[in-house]
Predict the structure.
Amino acid sequence: MKHFFIIPNRAKDPDLSITQGITDYLETHGATCTIRALGDADPHGRRKTDPEEIPEDTECMIVLGGDGTLMRAADDTVDRQIPLLGINLGTLGYLAEIDRTSIYPALNALLSDQFTIEHRMMLHGDVVRDGEIAASRTALNEVVIGRVGTPHVLALYNYVNDAYLNDYRADGVIVSTPTGSTGYSLSVGGPIISPSANVFLLTPLAAHTLNTRSVVLPPENKITVQVGPGRDNSIEHANAYFDGDEGIPMQTGDKIEIRRSEKDTLIIKIKNDSFLEVLRRKMGNI
């Protein structure tokens, strides 16, 4: 690889000293680099990477920050299908496998093409209101349908391929990929799934029943979550969040249809560590 697009998170590298060190090292070894720092947010509070800013000859995107930064970059640039390497400048990181101490060995591996590329499935979601698509987005980790305003229970009706599955009386529901199984879903009791499994994981968020469990579904299915009525048949309000981004408003009768995205996120792997080895290192003995 000789052509790189570098995406640093200014919150993690405020003076871009780490970024500049990486750029200098790559350029002294004959590579070309373009830097696009994630700093000021757009009017919606989202720090975006514009795929049109990425040069056509880019072979790799190097993302400095943490898993959140890498997820944003993946969501924004998935249509370009350029492999990403994550450099973790935060604390816990599953996707960003390279830490500060192993940056330059990783750069040498990129320059000498000594790496593998791992495909991570993504989600595509359409928010539907009155039979029309109101919004569409993709997510690498998860789609969360959650409540708005004061604490209260949502009625959420779940369908698989348009057939009724169940309903949750809960704070929300999480539809995640195997990559997302180590994120928000895990924190509310969902299972850990190997990223090679390619399945959907449906997990209730603070369900108000004792026997509610996560459901694992094949990736060719369509999952639909519909917002039910509020107390006394009032209009309920909820939000759909794609990888923690700004919420898309939903209300009673609205539904979100979630499918496997036609495109995967391409993650560069430098190390040969297995998924289980990464889990042991990040979470301690399990």
Q: What stands out?
A: The helical segments are 17-28, 67-77, 103-111, 184-187, 275-283. The first strand starts at residue 3 and ends at 8. The CA atoms of residues 87 and 101 lie 10 Å apart.
